[in-house]
Fold this sequence. Notes:
single chain; mainly alpha; Serine Threonine Protein Phosphatase 5, Tetratricopeptide repeat; 3 domains; two-stranded antiparallel sheet; 4 strands; globular
Amino acid sequence: MKSPTTRMPRATRAAVNPTIMIATVVSGQSWRKSGEAAAGTASAGLATAVILGDAGRVRTGIGRDPALATRPDARSGWTPLHAACASRWHRLDPGRAGGLLAVARMLLDAGADPNGSTAGQGSQAGGWTPLRCAVAGAANPLITGLLLERGAVPGDHDLYLAGFADDDHECLRLLLDHAGNVAQIARMALAAPVSINDTEGARLLLAAGADPGCYADDGASPCPAVYAAIRSGCSADLAGLLLAHGADPDAPGPDGRTPYTLATIQGRDDLAMLLRRYGAAGDITATDRFLAACQHADQAAVHRQLEHDPGLPGRLTPAQQAAAMTHAAESGNTPAIALMLDLGFPAGARHGDDGGTALHAAAYSGSAPAIRLLLDRGADIEARDSTWDSTPIVWAAIGSGEQPASNPSADWTAAVQALLDAGASARDVTFAPDDPKPPSPEVAALLGRHDGGRH
């Protein structure tokens, strides 16, 4: 990973925060630095005044040239309204929230289009509406409410991004109140709460009419809701909620496995029993039973199966072995990892959309014991995932901020310390205040002490 501000590993798949793009293509420098410059310089341009929520300076600027209120930036296609909606200053400095709201209202009064879509090139610049800017990343409920009052029309992508936005779901609730027929527009919206095990977010969408049978993971690859939830390590509450709203308990995932099979090989007996109660077929293979015994770290069951079928491990595909190792690492299941390593499963196998290793997964989930075991058994401490080009310590830092619930005994400070003790380089870890994926304060302090305050 070149920088956690622009790339994000794991399941949190909200789009890249648009404020960062604004900083580089609209104001020509990082938005944090441009904000600092604007705060101390009377001659700062309109872009920085908009991002800061400096209503007085914006009023003066558009008073001199009213066309500035709606003029898109030549390079990015972004307008001042997009910049105001995407600004993160209301989070770093809550006192600026009122100013940002005033700026957005001023721009709308001056003719800015609440549904205007940016025409810039690439996913970070093109296709953004003011509403999408307001709900993505550092969501701004005040501006979201204003845009909806002025006629902004929420779509599926907006609902999806709002699903990642805040713990109290304020923006998502606002969008649902104005979204019209959610059953017709919601196709990928459920992927947000499902991917982060957010039962309440899923409940809001389902209550508004979202159909779990019309579910697209990430808006692209069709993936049944229950299967996607189990793959993401969901709670029984979330799986039960989806099933109660009509999700098909037997709909297979892209790999052809049923939710029941997936739950079984993950060692999730609670989910397997739940699926059976909703009518799921219970057929599994000897391989599935073997992988389930591995996840339970049930050496007796594994040995019984091997006595009956000595060639069973050899029939496991590399993908099956990697998936089993990664799942155990995500849940901090060190005994299961140890058993599978003893059976010959590779320590460095890659699995998942990000192409991370089991060490990446253990680092992200805050499992110091799993980290130490994998390193002792030959895992590459500087391995880089195939999507974000990130090392395990970067995943650990981001995991400490996101704090996924997959590992019940997570300790990210201990996980980062274990990696540092083993010689991991922290040169790729950044944690400036404006990073959209910062580490926890404890991990930031540890990394700061480690490198003498470089960050």
